[in-house]
């Protein structure tokens, strides 16, 4: 067999990656409070419990507000930074971009603690707004990375052509540049939304009395009886992300087909 | 004649620096209304930079660029009466052909129907009638080129700037587009300024050509003058093929120069045949084009000026044959070209023959 060992390695790797996720729905539908084989029978009661858990609903709402805000804010900041770094030359450009990208490699816990100390020091109360602040900090480098690639692939003469045909720099940006980097913007929104949604450290440190979904889930794991409910919640989240990614991929491919670009695989 | 037409563009001692790099070194030239003007030169000679100073994409360090008598220093690119066809065509990939062509009409006060008609007319002008609804990215290279032309011409600019517009096309398509561009220019009567590194393209298309080297215009002339009387060795080398023979200047008097060229012997040249030797090492040389030297076949009348020679190499091109021949008394071979006329044999290597030449076709570089 060609590449026998590599094939076994590849399958083993995929199994390690996805088997735990496949166990989620199995135990979510299992009629027993203890997560263990053998299975005890089929039930949907864990899912029903999801509907009647106000704390969970509040956490989900917090998470969604934070994720939507953080993804939009960081993508906007990413657009400015990516545009600036690909089109303009200014002193210390490399250094400035490097500093913005630094949170990618800095231990997040250091950022979280530092931010907490500063916020408490200047007397800003912890709330979902402080979590948004932290998440923007974490998400912006990812936005910039995705958007820089999108801006770099733009032919500079497209802008010049629009300018040459009478448009202003602002209308050129709106009519030409923005439509052409839209796939990159969607990628950035999606990526930062996902990062923010499951981010734990910042949320844990900065949330105060308003937990996000990951913080709520973590807190529930202390009670054995809540574990199947959390697994049911996990199942719902997996299904939701698959749907979301499918929609995003559909739009990405449509965008590429519309501009006749080459499919480079995107980030998905 | 173009010389009677008003001046459209004037460069007044234009200099351009990129940091320490002196890209344009004192450009002085005028381009007349309705002219097909080419900027010709090797890559890095500043021809594209000069074109971009007309469009307004590049500022200048000193001097002035005038369009229609107006200094363009404070006029941004989007308000200049120029439009450009880019080397990459810069077709907006997310728009249809019609949206691309009509892009410049966005702020035009005409009604939608009138604009649509203008777009159709522009598409018709470049031979793309009926292509309006197509996606721009689905077009071939030649079609993109036409869309770019229509998009620029729809605004009826005073000057159309073309930045190496044909370099991305294959040879056949390029030759076809050259003729179409000439016809189009005659039809619309707009001043065309073409940047190219292809000397043949410049000779075919232009009314006048500015040959540029290292940020300076080396010669500005019509194609025929450029070809027959290149102002320097450098220009002669860049445009077409030219043979050079070492020469000695014997005397100069009353605008006439008496020269002795290796292999050709003594001759008298007029002052307008004497050019600069810039770009050459060593002393004076006499230059001539391959087609100005003719092989004398048996039975042909002996021309007044001729010499004996031996064929060293034969390159057969179908319509033409190129011979490398060694003229008696010359150190190196020279190239001559003969049209292949029916009944005339193609000579073989080693054939002893005679070649005729005319002093009027020679140029002295010193």
Termini Cα gap of chain B: 32 Å
The percent range for helix content of chain A is over 70%
Tertiary shape of chain A: globular
CATH topology of the largest domain in chain B: Rossmann fold
Main interface: chain pair and counts: A-B, 19 and 26 residues
How many strands appear in the DSSP assignment of chain A? 0
Which stretches of chain B are poorly predicted, pLDDT < 50 over at least 5 residues? none
- In the sheet with the most strands of chain B, the strands line up as 6-7-8-3-9-10
Q: What is the H/E order of chain B? A: EEEHEEEHHHEHEHEEHHEEEEEEEEEEE
Shape of chain B: globular
Domains of chain A (count): 1
Structural class of chain A: mainly alpha
CATH homolog superfamily of the largest domain in chain B = P-loop containing nucleotide triphosphate hydrolases
Q: Give the distance, in angstroms, between the N- and C-terminal Cα atoms of chain A.
A: 30 Å
CATH class of the largest domain in chain B: Alpha Beta
Class derived from helix and strand content of chain B: alpha+beta
Short description:
Chain A is mainly α and 268 residues long. Chain A has helices at residues 4-28, 45-51, 54-87, 93-101, 108-121, 128-152, 156-164, 169-197, 201-206, 213-220, 227-259.
Structure in words:
The complex is a heterodimer of chains A (268) and B (366). By secondary structure, chain A is mostly helical. Chain A has helices spanning 4-28, 45-51, 54-87, 93-101, 108-121, 128-152, 156-164, 169-197, 201-206, 213-220, 227-259. Chain A is globular, with a radius of gyration of 22 Å. Chain B has eight helices and 21 strands. In chain B, the strands form four sheets. In chain B, strands 6-7-8-3-9-10 form a six-stranded mixed sheet, with helices on both faces. A six-stranded mixed sheet of chain B has the order 13-12-11-15-21-14, with no helix packed on it. In chain B, a hairpin with a 2-residue loop joins strand 4 and strand 5. Chain B is of the alpha+beta class and 366 residues long. The model of chain B has no long low-confidence stretch (mean pLDDT 90). Chain B is globular and about 75 Å long. The chains are: A mainly alpha (268), B alpha+beta (366). Chain A binds chain B through residues 155, 157-158, 160-168, 176, 179-180, 258-261, and chain B through 55, 57, 77-79, 82-84, 86-88, 90, 92-94, 103-104, 106-107, 135-138, 151-152, 155.
């Amino acid at each position: 067999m060609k590449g026998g060992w590599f094939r076994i390695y590849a399958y083993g790797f995929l199994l390690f990656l996805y088997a735990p996720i496949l166990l989620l729905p199995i135990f979510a539908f299992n009629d027993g409070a203890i997560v263990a084989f053998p299975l005890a029978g089929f039930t949907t009661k864990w899912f029903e419990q999801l509907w009647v858990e106000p704390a969970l609903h509040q956490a989900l709402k917090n998470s969604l507000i934070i994720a939507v805000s953080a993804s939009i804010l960081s993508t906007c900041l990413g657009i400015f930074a990516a545009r600036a770094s690909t089109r303009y030359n200014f002193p210390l450009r490399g250094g400035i971009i490097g500093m913005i990208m630094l949170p990618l490699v800095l231990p997040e816990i250091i950022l979280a603690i530092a931010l907490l100390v500063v916020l408490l020091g200047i007397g800003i109360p912890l709330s979902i707004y402080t979590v948004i602040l932290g998440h923007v900090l974490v998400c912006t480098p990812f936005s910039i990375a995705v958007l820089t690639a999108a801006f770099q692939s733009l032919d500079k003469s497209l802008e010049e052509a629009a300018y040459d045909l009478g448009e202003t720099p602002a209308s050129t940006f709106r009519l030409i540049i923005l439509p052409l980097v839209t796939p990159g913007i969607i990628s950035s929104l999606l990526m930062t939304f996902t990062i923010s949604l499951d981010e734990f450290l910042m949320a844990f440190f900065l949330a105060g009395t308003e937990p996000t979904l990951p913080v709520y889930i973590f807190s529930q794991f202390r009670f054995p009886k809540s574990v199947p409910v959390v697994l049911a919640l996990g199942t719902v989240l997996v299904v939701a992300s698959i749907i979301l990614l499918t929609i995003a991929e559909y739009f990405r491919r449509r965008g590429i087909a519309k501009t006749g670009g080459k499919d480079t695989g995107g980030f998905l | 004649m173009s010389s009677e037409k008003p001046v459209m563009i004037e460069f007044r001692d234009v200099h351009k620096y990129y940091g320490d790099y002196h890209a344009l070194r004192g450009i002085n030239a005028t381009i007349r209304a309705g002219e097909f003007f080419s900027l010709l030169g090797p890559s890095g000679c500043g021809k594209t930079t000069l074109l971009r100073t007309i469009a307004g994409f590049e500022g200048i360090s000193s001097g002035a660029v005038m369009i229609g008598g107006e200094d363009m220093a404070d006029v941004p690119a989007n308000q200049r009466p120029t439009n450009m066809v880019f080397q990459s065509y810069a077709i907006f990939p997310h728009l249809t052909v019609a949206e691309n062509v009509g892009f410049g009409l966005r702020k035009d006060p005409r009604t939608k129907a009138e604009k649509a008609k203008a777009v159709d007319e522009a598409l018709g002008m470049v031979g793309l009638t009926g292509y309006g609804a197509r996606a721009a990215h689905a077009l071939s290279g030649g079609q993109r080129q036409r869309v770019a032309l229509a998009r620029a011409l729809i605004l009826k600019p005073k000057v159309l700037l073309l930045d190496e517009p044909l370099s991305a096309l294959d040879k056949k398509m390029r030759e076809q587009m050259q003729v179409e561009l000439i016809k189009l220019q005659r039809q619309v009567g707009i001043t065309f300024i073409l940047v190219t590194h292809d000397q043949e393209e410049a000779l075919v298309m232009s009314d006048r050509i500015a040959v540029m080297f290292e940020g300076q215009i080396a010669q500005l002339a019509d194609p025929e003058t450029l070809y027959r009387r290149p102002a320097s060795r450098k220009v002669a080398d860049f445009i077409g093929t030219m043979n050079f023979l070492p020469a000695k200047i014997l005397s100069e008097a009353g605008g006439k120069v008496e020269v002795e060229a290796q292999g050709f012997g003594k001759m008298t040249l007029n002052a307008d045949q004497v050019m600069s030797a810039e770009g050459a090492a060593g002393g004076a040389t006499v230059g001539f084009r391959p087609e100005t030297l003719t092989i004398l076949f048996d039975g042909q009348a002996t021309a007044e000026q001729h010499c004996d020679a031996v064929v060293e190499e034969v390159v057969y091109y179908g319509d033409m044959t190129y011979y490398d021949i060694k003229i008696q008394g010359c150190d190196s071979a020279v190239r001559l070209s003969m049209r292949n006329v029916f009944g005339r044999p193609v000579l073989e290597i080693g054939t002893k023959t005679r070649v005729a030449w005319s002093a009027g076709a020679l140029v002295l570089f010193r």
